[in-house]
Specification:
- This protein is 71% helix and 0% strand.
- By secondary structure, it is mostly helical.
């Protein structure tokens, strides 16, 4: 219902040049939004890959057992 009202309002009160400009601007913003969503999806995939790579790294375990009598003199 609101969409129909908006269309009626635009067509009734906006001049033709303003309607064209509005439509062009909306199309440009829709394309920009699609590009931003693709970029976000790509960055999320990159972050997930880093997260998985860090989780699968081998853990380095250092055992530091001092032998008695070695440092005593």
């Amino acid at each position: 219902m609101i969409k129909r009202f908006n269309v009626w309002l635009r067509e009734r009160f906006l001049p033709e040049w303003a309607r064209r400009q509005l439509v062009e601007e909306n199309e440009k913003l829709i394309k920009q939004l699609a590009e931003e969503r693709r970029e976000i999806k790509q960055m999320e995939a990159y972050i997930q890959g880093l997260h998985d790579g860090l989780r699968r790294q081998r853990q380095v375990v250092i055992h530091n057992h001092a032998v008695k009598g070695e440092n005593e003199e």
